[in-house]
Amino acid sequence: MRLTHLTGAGKALALTGLALGLGVSATQAADYPQKPVELVIPFSQGGGTDQVGRIFAQYAEPYLGTEIFVSNRTGGSGAVGFSYGAAAKPDGHVITMVVTTLAAAPHTIEQYPVSHEDFAPVCLLTAPPATLAVHPDSGIDSLEDLIAKAKAEPGKITIGTAGPGSNTHLIAASLAEQAGIDVRYVPNKGSGPALTATYGKHIDVAVADKAEVAPWIADGRLKVITVFTDDPANGIEGVKLATESGFNIDIGSFRAIGAPKGTPQPVLDVLVETCRKTAADPKFVEHITKTGTEPYVLLGEKFGAWLANKHKAFGDAVKAAGL
Amino acid sequence: MNLLVDGFSAVLEFQTLIYLAGAVLLGIMAGAIPGISATMGVALLAPLTFTMDPLIGILSLVGVYCGAVYGGSLSAILLGIPGTPGAVATTLDGYAMSRQGRPGIALGIATLSSFLGGSLSAVALMLLSYPIADFALAFGPQEYLALVVFAMTAMAALSGGAFLKGLFAGFIGLFLAGIGIDETYGVSRYHFGHLMLMGGISFIPVTIGLFAIPETLLSIERIGLAPRRAIRVNRILPGRRILLSLLPAQFRSSVIGTIVGAVPGAGSDVAAIVGYSQGKVLSRQSERFGTGSEEGIACAESANNSATGGSLIPLLTLGIPGGAVTAIMLGTFMTHGLQPGPLLLHNNAELVYQIFAGVFVANILLLIFGLSGSKLFARVLQIPESILIPAILLLCAIGAYAMRTNPVDVLIMFIAGMVGYVMVKTGIPRAPLIIGLILGPMLEGELARSLILIGTDWTGLFTPISSVIWLLAIAPFVLPLARRATRRFRNHMKTKN
Which of B113, B280, B392, B412 is the right S-S partner for B157, CB 3.0 to 4.6 Å? Predict the structure, then answer.
């Protein structure tokens, strides 16, 4: 039940009810959204988070019943955007793209000012597992090959990551720790440049998620040697999973929606319902899939529990890797 | 060849042409507004193209891209405010010409040079894509490091004679670039507990403030002192002699711009800086650079527009987006079920040639709009200052805010403006500060990556390609000394005999 769909009399009644303090959950829900909703994207235009966010905004608008405008509030490894989104008035008119960095950076960047606890969970949209990619001419055919090579020449293998505080760095460090190998980490401005450097043979391996690596393996420019997931459905055909090689590293990337902590339940319900309908929209699914990753949707509290787990997994990985 | 002819005929179809023309116009407007960059224009348009026919959708983005890079020169020339980061070098000579009462000629040269640069890069895209792409792929951290240092020597060229002052400004820029979370180890620097400083200082608000605020303040100082000279724009094209004399510089800058554009990570801003400084080093009238030199505008504008075609080379041939604009284009290709890269030419040769043709046509449209619109654009100078100055200030505040939707950026813009005013009054050139701020993070990142890759053996910094770039980088400093030394030697020999 949305305010815009009520007749004038109904509106008056609803507002009167609210004014009298009789605002039970139904009227509160009817109260939202009252104006266009801002979707905060803490990273810049053209990146992976931006892409998913804009696609979501486009398909979710009709279900939310109001305009969703995207704002890229960037800087400080996401700190600027996340902080803005967390500190916004908790009435559902500012929602935020909650992504991997929010789970990783609090552990890896000193004085990172915001964490998942500052957000009320709305929904998870995608969670592509991380992969390791190499050049087809590299002579590395499997994770076992890579580890053998790294053991033969300690400190020689270079692994490109998406920068400090990113989960790609943590994944590389966890792998090195679990396999007992000595490698060099090369930070890049995102996974894209790391993949390009691998293709140009400037580094040996790139850590990138399945969505980012998809276009590179589609035409054989790069080769994936492992996927960090235990779910074969989430893997890549013909590629051995990391768990099959004996490595359990579950700190893949994700892209989700969060509202400020303290957002009233009825408003959250509207947002979650919007997510549910959007995620079920075949056009949305098709569009997201074309960007290289299937939607992976969890709603509300279920997502909240998943996110808390992720946060803990990142913390454990940081400790284990001794960062 | 047939494919190319078919490509042109597809682009020249009425509907495609209308979309492309609209996109170029939109791009010019976006570029002319300080703070609205090519990236933002393309990002805003991209979602609308998802539902279009793939060719029209992609060409719309190409049109906005080319238009915006050109549009940046309009505000640079007329108002002294670079509309996009690529127009910083254009500001120096373009605005000087404007102040001398020759805004029309400056606009005309900028338009012609943009057209030449853009179309030459389109030709390179059609004929030399593969060799250029292979060359660009050979760029690793060591090569980037050399390229960034090469671009930094432009600080000298952009200092307009006051070299030490320029160096001073450049180092302030480098220092400002160090604020925020560093990209190598994630250490927060110089933020004093402020979140907004943690996010680093963006060069967009600094550029706007540094150039726009002093110009408005100086105009206010002039009000009432002398009656404002009515500027009439009669001519937009200089004589044939001047036009012909500009050709070598335009050609050189186009080649530089195409290659710099093709190298992933460097865009039209770096291209313009390198093009301008090389132009100055090689020019016979290098002392005129910065004081209203036609050649200066020609160098900067052909370089930044040729970077547009250049940046499409690795995108179409290798599937590598070199910057934010091409990253958005890559996303658009993929939403249409197309995979840029080696297979695109194989599977969708028609589309690729249509895009080649589209880039060329976009530049012709740019020429048409630019030449026919120049007189109209220049009329902005006839607006009374009481209206123009507040309007500029408002646009600048919006521009500073728009990129990161961060109110602190507006504050930074005004602070930069006050600093800029002091710099103007004390004769410290402003462009080197911007160069330091833009190139600082690249310099640091590439140096860190190079050192991680080569370990303790510093000779690893000098690969074949990077050695050549290092030599080019030190040439402007060594050549004059060498020349002086040989002259002295000759004189010495003469007196001996």
Answer: B280
